[in-house]
Q: What sequence folds into this?
């Protein structure tokens, strides 16, 4: 069984915003991937960007600089 790790999850108001985050991270070489939102939380579009928790500040800063709208930010063991 895979060991759980602390991850940061960014949720979005729309699928378009989630896809914009994916595009940004791919272009900038930032870590993470789109995942379905875990059942323990709720989100508007049902998608979340998951990355190592240590990358939280860098990802938040990149999203803010590009004007991406986030619904919420969570830290969870996944």
A:
């Amino acid at each position: 069984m895979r060991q759980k790790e602390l991850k940061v999850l960014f949720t979005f108001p729309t699928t378009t915003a989630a896809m914009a985050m994916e595009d940004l991270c791919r272009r900038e070489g930032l870590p993470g991937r789109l995942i379905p939102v875990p059942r323990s939380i709720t989100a508007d579009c049902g998608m979340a960007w998951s990355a190592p928790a240590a990358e939280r500040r860098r990802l938040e800063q990149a999203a803010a600089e590009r004007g991406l709208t986030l619904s919420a930010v969570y830290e969870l063991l996944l």
In short: The longest helix spans residues 15-28. Residues 6-77 form a domain with the Alpha-Beta Plaits fold (CATH 3.30.70.240). The chain has a mean pLDDT of 95.
